[in-house]
Amino acid sequence: MPQSTAAPSATSRRQGASANLSEPRAARTHEALTTSLFALLRDHDLTEISISELCRTAGVHRTTFYGHYADIYAFAADAFARMLDDLANVADDPASFDDSSPEAITAAYAQSVRQELIHIRDHRPAYRMMFGTRVDAGFRRELFQRLLRRAAISISIWQRHGVATEIDAATAAAYIAGGSVGVFEDWANSDETDADARTDEIMATSPSWCSSLYQGNSHDTDARNGVK
Description:
Oligomer: single chain
Helix content: 55-70%
Distance between the termini: 46 Å
Mean pLDDT: 83
Number of domains: 2
Number of helices: 12
Radius of gyration: 19 Å
Largest sheet: none
Number of strands: 0
Shape: globular
Low-confidence stretches: 1-17, 218-228
Strand content: under 5%
């Protein structure tokens, strides 16, 4: 496989913009590129994958790729972080949880964590590469921002139900997001496979207002699948 040209500067890598996946064509293109990237990363480091090879494998024209991303590093950071974000089990609209109990909300949040751990476990070599890449792919930054958003949503839902109303939501969201990045990296670099056990450990070390509402593996299937 041809090696990528010299890695672009940090400035240029940070100019990549996420595609608007509300557009069907953009969504299909992003899915094809993401699937191809995961496939190529089974045997190659990110620094060894050229945009030409990625686009050829995905059946996407290079011009289309450059219409959304500055380089393969920007795309990889967005693709991996977006993949984990899409597994979140907490709705964007806090009002959708108005009829749910704080315990059910916590179960939905825990299920998000569990699904993210499973995805990382099932694609461990690729995530190890992303966390350990020799270039600044911006993955941690992108992942932190997405986890920060999800944490803020979750906290706003808890507070709507009278839980943790005395805390500063922004500080708590940053604390949870930063800790989650560290936990995911540790999980990716481990050989552990029990996502349920790791989820229980994560929830047990969460802030007391969260961990006290978590009932662990005693939750039934419907609770694990979240609140609709």
